[in-house]
Amino acid sequence: MPSATKHTGRSRARLVGMAASAVVAASGLAACSSGDGGPPVLNWYINPDSGGQAEIASRCTDAAEGRYTIAVSTLPRDSPSQREQLVRRLAANDSSIDIMSLDPPYIPEFAQAGFFAPMPEDVAQRVSTDVVQSAIDGSTWDGELVTVPFWANTQLLWYRTSVAEAAGLDMSQPVTWDQLTQAAQDQQVRLGVQGIRSESLTVWLNALIESAGGSIIAENSTDPEQIQLGLDSEAGVRAAQVMRDVSASGTGGPALSTANEDTTATDFEGDSAGFQVNYPFVWPRAQAAVEGGTLDQSVLDDYGWALYPRVDADTETAPPYGGINLGVGAFSEHPDLAYEATECITSTENQTYYFTSNGNPASDTTVYDDPEVLDTFPMAPTILQSLELAKPRPQTPYYSEVSGGIQRDYHPTAEIDPEQTPQDATELIEAVLRKEQLL
Amino acid sequence: MTTTEARPTGASVPARAAKGGASDRAKAERKLGWLLAGPALAVMLLVTAYPIAQAFYDSLFDYRLTDPENRSFTGLNNYLVVLTDQLWWQAVGVTALITVITVAVELVLGFALAMVMNKALRSIRPVLRAAILIPYAVITVVSAFAWQFAFDINTGFVNSWFSWLPGVDPTTDWFGSFGSSLLVICLAEIWKTTPFISLLLLAGLAQVPEVLQEAAKVDGATWWQRMRRVTLPNMKAAIMVALLFRTLDAFRVFDSIFVMTAGANGTETVSFLAYRQTISRLEIGLGSAVSVLLFLTVVLIAFVFIKGFKVDLAQARGEK
């Protein structure tokens, strides 16, 4: 008996030993891959796309001629989850994050937390030349460029030419939300907006307030208790009114309170389509549907586009600004090479490629002169015009609190009380920022 | 003299026989018991006690992950903020509602399924058990997505298949209001976890002595009388354990909410609230306070069940 127990004891020890040596071997392998063997590997954390960023990574790896290689890692689908993952890693000083594709609203938070490696001045100079204003605004925090503008998104007003004609709307002139709601009601068609309780709702409200001449944050500050909100200003109340009127008119469809960009785009391909505000991806999407045989060519021919609707007829519109900018991780082992790589990634050729192949509009203004771009996106000049007018969402390290508070009080949009809701949201967000309330 | 004497465990019974201390055999058994359970206990302490203690420690601070420099000790202030917030009480209410509805329905359905499995022909019993267990084997996130797609206004089939029901038509937005969202969430939970409760109840049914059933039959008891006077009293322990496990489980509901509504329309539960404060808002202090409160609530539920309803886990396992 004792010998038996001894035997098992010994074999267990051997097992532990084997496991330990396996761990050592594995860590040796890991050290090898990022070590002095080959050129340094830059990890680029990308948002999911149609393969464009991976292709750009391999092009830039080739262009680097052995100085570095870029490996891509994919982040979760939606931008709040992307932020969550990156923040968790960066808070733990993750040195594997060299380059990251970031949704602009989260850039101030990252910058304030010291998650970006400082940008060399000559790089800042080069990457901000010939770039649309909204993308520069979205890459800036505290007066300094902290990320490299990559691609810039904006919403357009998409309409069915036949519907607009029947409603007697002159789409060559700016149109207002009130006009569109009326036209959609008269023609019994949809006016597609994003009423889901998510980022899309903040995007819509921000565009409305900015179009009305106000801002969600009236007085900015790095101290959360000093931030002054502009939700209950005159422009804020007007924005709430437009949001409520559009939603309560019923033209948003029965599922307005869960409608996101995809559902609005699907609706716009359907029979009851009239108008929608949406990103340019709806164009390649409809083209693909025609090629796939699920959409008639005549529907695609009926697509029209214009600048985002105005709130008041005499005030210029302020369309939403989105897209992706590139940040270099503060804990990266090769920040200089990473910045070099971002310049390659955001080169005019690569932005042109990304625009034409993946449908993501460039932040580089010279891209819009390319005949290939104009051929793929006939609305490219409108996109460029929209990007110059576009306004970023509130730039604050506490963006998720501000956006979360808005989503809580403004949803469902059909039940907004223009007098009460902005005030409630202001009180909520201020209490949350003072950490006196949950969100 | 020794504290073990007060504990009615199997090992202490011979110990009581030897006056003035544990017998050698009892000592050896206790030592073996510690040897067998010790490693598991150590691992448990490492993976549960440590995080709980850490969460409690964090909950005493005003601490934002992106702003570690301004971390400051605030005592129990986070608990005050949480407990005075209407959002917390709403989440508790919603969680309790989901728990009560799902557990009640599951108990009835699970009991029916257990009876079917118990009475099924020996030849088809394994197949039947496997078939009933399938939903429980599905990952919760996957089942949540399946139910969400089924009820979705654009991609779902429910609106067209069930349009003959009053109140259901092609424009019914199930996730657009509180009541209908909660209905779908509860349906998904019930579909998913009824098999679990039915398995626990099947074990209880198997414990009901056949002699008693036969005796009752001979005395002319009806099916209903046998159920009420013989079956149910004999499996009370199994029922209470099944209820306890499911209540603890249901109170922590997260996946379905996360996937289907993300807390919209007032469907936020306590665990989702904790997730949002900690993970989305990065407010480690506040989030930890919510987590600790959730933990205390779960402990309270377990305590009430075990003390209040006198659930005896040992008896349910058939040890006594």
From TrEMBL, chain A:
UniProt keyword annotation of Transport present: yes
Record has S-adenosyl-L-methionine as a keyword: no
Keyword terms, alphabetized: Signal, Sugar transport, Transport
SUPFAM superfamilies in UniProt: Periplasmic binding protein-like II
Pfam families for this protein: SBP_bac_1 (PF01547)
Residues in the signal sequence: 1-30
Family: Belongs to the bacterial solute-binding protein 1 family.
Name of the protein described by the UniProt record: Multiple sugar transport system substrate-binding protein
Automatic annotation (TrEMBL), chain B:
Places the protein is found: Cell membrane
Keyword terms of this UniProt record: Cell membrane, Membrane, Sugar transport, Transmembrane, Transmembrane helix, Transport
GO biological process, one term: transmembrane transport
Membrane topology value: Multi-pass membrane protein
Database matches in SUPFAM superfamilies: MetI-like
Transmembrane segments: 32-53, 87-115, 127-151, 171-191, 284-306
Pfam families from the UniProt entry: BPD_transp_1
Family: Belongs to the binding-protein-dependent transport system permease family.
Protein name: Multiple sugar transport system permease protein
Native source organism of the sequence: Klenkia brasiliensis
